[in-house]
Amino acid sequence: MNYFSSESKAILDERLQSIANILMLNASSLNNIGLYNGKMGLAIFFYHYALYSKKEIYEVYAGDLIDVIFKKIRTGLPLDFETGLTGLGWGFEYLVQNEFVEADTDELLEEVDKAVASVKNENLKVRSNANKDDLFGTGLYYAMRLKDWGSDIKDASENRLILNNLKNDAEILFDADLLFDENVSACRLNSIIYFLLEIKRKKLFPEKINILLSNLPAFIAKRTDLNISWEQQSILINLLSLLAGEIEVPQLKKEYKKVIKKCTSHHNNTYLSDREVISSYIAAELSSLLYAVNLHDDEKHADISLRSRKILENETFWFTWIERNDEDDLGFWNGLAGLGLALMKGKKHTSITDSLTTSASK
Asked: Quick check: 337 and 10 in contact, CB under 8 A?
């Protein structure tokens, strides 16, 4: 099903143009250079919108934002994914891998790699003041940096700093007590599972990974808060299904299927207000981008996508939405940049990477 039919295309294009205009007017005043609510998230939007609209001006503007970010980035920034170095590093790597920017990321991100390598236990613990969107930034950064290495990197060059860092930090990164903290949010848990999945696919640290993956079903099964937001629950089910496909031990595979069934039976069907629908739609599309999973066959996702289209076609709601002035309302995760990315991704009905990179290669 195409959630944004030809009848809605004019409205969709108008909404995206409005988003681009507002972001261009406000980007220079943003002090935050981070991924979630800062300049990096906006740069990602503008690179994609340049391809969508076929207007070079947005590509140039995105490049200007990247130049500003690169001048302001410093190793004294926090490591967190939302505002700090791991999110910025992820953003640079994402842009290079998707051919928006030409660069050698081993060179470009050398200082970030060094900062991430100095990670300590306290950096990986669940923060007492963490919000529900807190992510395992270090894991996501490593997963993105290693993404273009193929399925088996055991013979990869030993002089690559990022791989040496991962090996040196293994005892901390794969500490079950740190990863499977009882206070971990659903959002963070999904990012941890994705990290473990990617490391398993790269065939690194098999003993450590197998121990963690053998304990994961029991950890999830004993969670009492499975009534989480539908998009994080759908991501969880998708990631567990991917992991089950990688598991070779029959009994463990059965345990994964059992916990997947339990998660599915607890699927959240709470009624959402219009604002909650849009926020949920953005979170679903961007989470599927982060973790490379497809939610478009999910029945709840279909309902949310259709409701989002109808809500966004409503002029009164639209003008109320775009008149919000807080900096957080502009960003990648739950602001206008994120909404724009979600609309482009939803319209193509494939991943942003697949759809827009294909357009660029023509």
From this structure: no
Number of residues in the chain = 362
Alpha helices by DSSP H, listed for the chain, are 6-26, 39-53, 56-72, 85-97, 105-108, 110-117, 121-124, 137-145, 161-168, 170-173, 176-179, 186-201, 206-221, 230-246, 250-265, 274-291, 299-313, 315-322, 336-348, 352-361
For residues 348 and 62, give the distance between their C-alpha atoms in angstroms, rounded to a whole number: 22
d(CA 322, CA 312): 11
Q: Residues 6 or more apart from 213 whose CB is under 8 A from it?
A: 196, 200, 243, 247, 252
pLDDT digits (tens, 9 = 90+) for 171-202: 888 888 888 888 888 888 999 999 999 999 88
- Digit-coded pLDDT (tens) for 19-43: 999 999 999 989 999 999 999 999 9
How far, in Å, CA of 34 to CA of 100, rounded? Answer: 18
> Is the Cβ–Cβ distance between 271 and 244 less than 8 Å?
no
